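Long-time lurker. I teach an intro course on protein structure, and each term I like to show students one example going from raw sequence to a predicted 3D structure in token notation. This year I'd like something fresh instead of my usual example. Would anyone be willing to generate the tokens for the chain below so I can use it in lecture? Attribution to the forum is fine with me.
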Amino acid sequence: MAEIVVALDQPNAGEALGFLDRLPDARWVKVGSVLFTREGPALVGALRARNLEIFLDLKWHDIPNTVAGAVRSAADLGVAMATVHTLGGREMMAAARAVAGGIRLVGVTVLTSHDAASFGCAVGRDGVEIGAEALRLAEEAAAAGLAGVVCSPAEAAALRRRLGEGALLVVPGIRPAGAPAYDQRRTATARDAAAAGATHLVVGRPITAARDPAGVLDQLRAEVGAGGA
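-- Reply from a regular --
Happy to contribute to a lecture. Here you go:
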């Protein structure tokens, strides 16, 4: 059953922790680059003190030695899962994996904000197909020994078939039926993403902007058949 990971998109630690007071049953939270850049390791410590599993989503993409150093630092913080970007290449991912310790490293494939045209522009190629690109990058992540990948709901089923049952599939872009997609291009409901093979569903604004975030979290858990995520 898929875990629900609450994306903390608040601008500072006070607001993030205050929001979590309204979600006493949360288990997983995502800390991204905006919040981590402002608050740093102290926030991770505060979240761990609440017995939360922390997904540190900084999408490291640098030379292998630098990324390995970042992963070591994250391991010292005690985060449960973290991201590297697959476009950094197999050598970089393997260097990160070698020092990961207990961190489950997942490789970001194609951002959910991309469509074929924008990704083709980013990599300098015409006629790219998003699904094929995500699959190619996921295979590089697997070859480097990563625990899994981050992908959109649109690619989840194909990646599950190719990577097998043991791989983690972390899927953002989760939206209730009829909800706005905001800046994400490839979205799905929690039920559909879980059915496609996602292991972790990253949910931000549908929870954080809700009048009753705890109720939304409960609804999502019921939707994916989870007894608690």
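Some talking points for your students: The chain has a mean pLDDT of 91. The chain is about 45% helix and 15% strand.
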